[in-house]
Amino acid sequence: xxxxxxxxxxxxxxxxxxxxxxxxxxxxxxxxxxxxxxxxxxxxxxxxxxxxxxxxxxxxxxxxxxxxxxxxxxxxxxxxxxxxxxxxxxxxxxxxxxxxxxxxxxxxxxxxxxxxxxxxxxxxxxxxxxxxxxxxxxxxxxxxxxxxxxxxxxxxxxxxxxxxxxxxxxxxxxxxxxxxxxxxxxxxxxxxxxxxxxxxxxxxxxxxxxxxxxxxxxxxxxxxxxxxxxxxxxxxxxxxxxxxxxxxxxxxxxxxxxxxxxxxxxxxxxxxxxxxxxxxxxxxxxxxxxxxxxxxxxxxxxxxxxxxxxxxxxxxxxxx
Length: 320
Description:
- By secondary structure, the chain is an alpha+beta fold.
- The chain has helices at residues 18-29, 86-95, 164-172, 175-178, 189-206, 250-264, 279-287, and strands spanning 4-7, 10-13, 32-39, 43-53, 56-62, 78-83, 102-106, 112-117, 123-128, 148-150, 154-157, 210-215, 221-231, 234-241, 269-275, 291-300, 310-318.
- The strands form three sheets. It has an eight-stranded mixed beta sheet, with helices on both faces. Strands 1-6-9-8-7 form a five-stranded mixed beta sheet. It has a four-stranded mixed beta sheet with strand order 2-5-4-3.
- Strand 13 (221-231) and strand 14 (234-241) form a beta hairpin.
- Helix 3 packs across helix 5 (189-206).
- It is globular.
- The model is unreliable at 1-8, 40-45, 65-76 and 131-140 (pLDDT under 50).
């Protein structure tokens, strides 16, 4: 499957999942186990494993990573894997029937990439090693998005690693909140920390990314939104809010601010999808000027709803 590179991450597994994880990484991504530590009182099938594929290395650890581990502060639960021949890898994974959380597309930095999660919910982005120079977008780089945006009631700000516990408690661990989202309900703060490290990578690479939404009056965390840059002229967006923030117009206010950020950044198009039965999300998009562009059948995986892809409604708005 070609040479690979690794941006370090510990992948944390629930107790009892080591063998299934090792089998999955071997069958789906071509990793081999080079070290396995057994501790019978914890799990007779191993509680710590090192997997390799070419230059890539993955450490699988049960429950929580040990404090002394040199990678504890790097990318827990998030793996960025670059490969030569990404189309071949993509086809092999599709042939195995593995559900993707994001289909193959060309990222704004020029490389083609797709995204999936392992059986324990760890996020994996698989990208080609380098984009052909002639296919990369020409022209000056786009303006960076502001890291703080204020509205009448809200503050939108770039997330920080120290926000993990509050994000986890307020909405990321709530099955009712995450029901219609594209990522699995978080079962540990380590998963939320993985999201925040991925967020930092996105902001560094794209000059834009997720925002946390905070009540300006008391600093209470309400939810999240943001921009995911797909091309120099196009981005996608979404939103999530804690249950006690529903029904107060916060999502509409926050999304309206994101639309203005996208416009100021020079984007031409902003789009979003929502589950076909999620009426509240549809109303928010329509209030913010998004037009319904169609229904995509069996298009999107909602891991907290079903293992099968679901129908979504596609919405978009042209900014200039």
